[in-house]
Amino acid sequence: MKLTSAFNKTRISLILIALIAGVSACSKEKAPETESKLDEPAQAAPAGLAYVTSQDAAVSVIDLATLQVVKQLDIKAESPRGLGVTDDGKKLIVATRENESVSVVDTATGEVLQQIKVGKNPEFVRVSGNFAYVSSEPSSKGGPPPKPGEKAKVEEDDDDDDELIPAKIAVIDLTKGEKVREITGGPETEGIEFSADGKQLVITNEADNTVTVHNIETGELVKTIKTHELGDRPRGIKVSPDGTTYLATLEYGNKFMVLDKDYNLVRTVDTAETPYGIAYDKKGERIFVATNKAKLLQVFDAKTYEKIKEIPTGNRCWHFSFTPDDKQILLACGKSDAVYVIDADKLEVTKQIEVKGMPWGLVTYPKAMGSLDQP
What's the pLDDT at 46? Predict the structure, then answer.
């Protein structure tokens, strides 16, 4: 009995030791796993991408996490200018001047899915849902602004018969992959904006100095705002985030006009020489204006319209966009072959990204506030 009792005690002791050893081993095996999870940083949300058209080249893709050009997209056509991205970021729509078309690009592969004819001199692109709206300039003469009292210079090979041709806004069904209708604008239709309720299209017509409002479904002209007495050549157009105000730059007037929600003139605001691209910040607190000849990005208070700051930039800076996190502004400066990076809080240039070939337009995905697009 004593031997049996001793044996049982020994056996129990061995079992307890084995159990303790097993628990200890399991704890040691699991500890590293727990520690690695604690030490592992949370996955940051992607910073996004910027797409930049260059008139003499292709489309550059900038990684917004590194602010480096990471890819060039061959869009199979010359002179890309305006561009827009679909809401899901899967397609890029690029206006190409020389072949009177837009290229529809798969952003994942860089493949050109389609080229769709839209009209002579396509320029601005805006995307809403499954539709793209593309402005054109069949009567475009271009050239520098005239001196006071003079007419704009006309090139010898310009066709005078083109002068009165009304421009068209091509409406493209991106699901069908074809132009389904047109909205008639004024000569040299330029900027495009959607009304706050999405039912109207607001466009600038630089050749006849008007801003016109159209029913987006029927194309019917709703209202015409003449700008000549205020300034010629309306270019950029933008609605405020709260939908109560519209802004339009007057390139040859060195100012922008302020319209209320019913498109009535409220006031004008003086700018530096030849303003073009214009945008609000996301909160609607500040207004940014790219002034070409003055080589400045000007910042105004959106309530008082007082000038906050002037940021020196490069040559022929027309279009810009905030980054999706609203912390930086990217400004395409064509004759500097660069995209300027500006701190949106400090309002200072922090970097220049080389983008050759006359950079023209710039949008981001995810979409951000900018002179060409906004979410």
Answer: 78
